Amino acid sequence: xxxxxxxxxxxxxxxxxxxxxxxxxxxxxxxxxxxxxxxxxxxxxxxxxxxxxxxxxxxxxxxxxxxxxxxxxxxxxxxxxxxxxxxxxxxxxxxxxxxxxxxxxxxxxxxxxxxxxxxxxxxxxxxxxxxxxxxxxxxxxxxxxxxxxxxxxxxxxxxxxxxxxxxxxxxxxxxxxxxxxxxxxxxxxxxxxxxxxxxxxxxxxxxxxxxxxxxxxxxxxxxxxxxxxxxxxxxxxxxxxxxxxxxx
Amino acid sequence: xxxxxxxxxxxxxxxxxxxxxxxxxxxxxxxxxxxxxxxxxxxxxxxxxxxxxxxxxxxxxxxxxxxxxxxxxxxxxxxxxxxxxxxxxxxxxxxxxxxxxxxxxxxxxxxxxxxxxxxxxxxxxxxxxxxxxxxxxxxxxxxxxxxxxxxxxxxxxxxxxxxxxxxxxxxxxxxxxxxxxxxxxxxxxxxxxxxxxxxxxxxxxxxxxxxxxxxxxxxxxxxxxxxxxxxxxxxxxxxxxxxxxxxxxxxxxxxxxxxxxxxxxxxxxxxxxxxxxxxxxxxxxxxxxxxxxxxxxxxxxxxxxxxxxxxxxxxxxxxxxxxxxxxxxxxxxxxxxxxxxxxxxxxxxxxxxxxxxxxxxxxxxxxxxxxxxxxxxxxxxxxxxxxxxxxxxxxxxxxxxxxxxxxxxxxxxxxxxxxxxxxxxxxxxxxxxxxxxxxxxxxxxxxxxxxxxxxxxxxxxxxxxxxxxxxxxxxxxxxxxxxxxxxxxxxxxxxxxxxxxxxxxxxxxxxxxxxxxxxxxxxxxxxxxxxxxxxxxxxxxxxxxxxxxxxxxxxxxxxxxxxxxxxxxxxxxxxxxxxxxxxxxxxxxxxxxxxxxxxxxxxxxxxxxxxxxxxxxxxxxxxxxxxxxxxxxxxxxxxxxxxxxxxxxxxxxxxxxxxxxxxxxxxxxxxxxxxxxxxxxxxxxxxxxxxxxxxxxxxxxxxxxxxxxxxxxxxxxxxxxxxxxxxxxxxxxxxxxxxxxxxxxxxxxxxxxx
Lengths: 248, 754
Prior knowledge:
heterodimer; A: alpha/beta; four-stranded antiparallel beta sheet; B: mainly alpha; ABC transporter involved in vitamin B12 uptake, BtuC; two-stranded antiparallel sheet; two-stranded antiparallel ribbon; globular; disordered N terminus; disordered C terminus
């Protein structure tokens, strides 16, 4: 569909179906339900920031979007197609790119081999490498090094470069800033901003990071397994403190 | 209190632990390891010098040693690399690798020799088609389900598979005639290089191994599939997020592993004998090579394999040992495995799947009163049944009594594993080695006087051997302990029981006088002995039940769940571990002495590793943490013998192996164990188990379909009910179809305002 169209301008609202749409999604782990009916949509070319405290269900929501967790009720649509219960690798090949929290890399593979893994999305390896090294020249210097021996920031760059290089239809970022120095976080979000400017649809999950506000078109707050508020990033940020305190 | 960026960073937990960071490619060799290794090297030199056979060191002799050793090593390498590929990719250590190779070697024989197919066709069909298909099938049917099972069960299921394959092969190709696979280009096909004769078969073997090494290297480092196989090792879920199909990757690994096993089996068959046990054990020797590669480095695995092959040939050609150590060349892989496993750095020993070791539900512990009642009932049953008091049966014949004794003796030996494996989580495949030690001690000390003190001494003197086994166990866990115990058992089989001073093969006749206890004379095959054994077994079960509820029982269980947590609670882990090994060895030694009394004459074959495996498996099938499982295991051991005896069908001919093997494999479907399931069904009929009746009633109520109108009135209306109802009526799917978006949206109650 709209996948990989790097030159299109950012279409905020359009007649096309949203890239990602969740309706009344319920999901959990075994007997424990974590999401009690999540509604969320990301329009084409939109950057949505999803905030929330620990245990709000943010990561679970991403798990549902990427096919790792099967929803027990509700619907997950990718560009209008229902994808409930699709397997993660199938969704990844269809253009959903989740950069998981922690380090989304393979520590015992070299940098090049990590990038090689990104070619399952259908992009040629030469192009993946070219784009990744262009964005993060530091990775080029370390191409034959084992990824586990990179610094935290470099590991995160390597993880994001998969999102950069493979023209995903939808990029899901889980707690990108976790455990990184603020300066590096700012640099990473600068790149995310560039991707957004190129028309990529992105769902960013963070507990809270100032840097996200500069990138996001809309923001949402999640609490107790539901999306509580959706709105302009600035107003959400202002209301956030209250929402955290009010609890449910 | 508005959270800000630095807060978020501060709060964030760092998930990546040191264990996720790979070791740098160049590992500095610790000094301690270097000292131990050089010590071993010096020891090897001294042993060689002391037992030098006087074979002249000529080009021909050394060259012959190298050629034969390399070809043997090449076969080990092929088999071990299959093991490594599967283990690194799927996390399952396939104990059945050797048996799989053995099986395909038999299939090859069937096609090539029995049906006269041309060698290339038979080879291609077995190695490229049947074996990979078999591997994929194994993955689908069994291995995939193993991933979330506790490690003990993972190990037992693959050992079960090994035993099952041996049973299948023994049934399909019965040992009624000799079978041979000719070497490629026959026995005479050879050429000579600088005075060394090289057969084509050996040259082909070495070339095949080299080609496989090259192909594996290319696959794992050049092809995307291979990179994905290595990526899955790091993180299965992340690989899937990249778009790699984890299931397909696992299936590929199993196909490769199975195919490599087949290659190894077919190559070794002409060099060895086409006999089930022999072939399985030869390929098991490859475990040592895989251990040298720390189960994941292919180059080191190949190096270990070649060292092993050449080392064995060296011993065979240049050294001579007296009769007791005549198996030295065969024992070399075992010794190497034991040494390497012990030397492996602790950091490498992190067992996989620790998080999956949670028990599904809490098992209720039997109390001493219940156990006493059960044991008394068992005794009355045995008393009445053997005496012919029960209707429809006569008094048992001597054959029946003997089988009853076998059942009880086996059950007693099995009991030794209940505290060790069931409670403390220490996997051991060596109960028969301890039993053998006990039997030997009993025979030596008081066998010919029949004094009952001998039994006590047998238990007491076997206990230190258990402490010996505990030494490696202090450092080892899970898979590595299992391997060490296997090496231990095989080492005893090859080097200890073969000593003339231990078991004299030339001494015939009964070595055990009837046991005399307080004026009673018990022969090893009489009814009195069976009744006495029942009493002993009952006492041991009750003792174990009491022990499980004691401080020691709790310590062992705590240690199994987490050694680190147990240590922080102030439990001395080493002491606790040694104690359970000592207890287990004493029990097994006691059982072994009783076994000796039954059979009358000891021989090496009774205590072999392969004989012991079905015993371990049947106990695990029963449920390794329950003493009652030992009775289940004993009953089944005898049941297989009885069935085989009663129905003389050829497909039952290997039932005593096939049965336990298949039962163990089927455990992937029911990990709780048979006795736990039987107990759950049976408990509600016991007068004092009101709790079991209540649980049963609750279960019945929960599974009942709700009556229409009942929901929300007599029974609370839960979220699960709602989901189930929606699913049953397919409401969600109907509305979710394209074109019904409006309706789907209307269903959603809480929709946030955009």
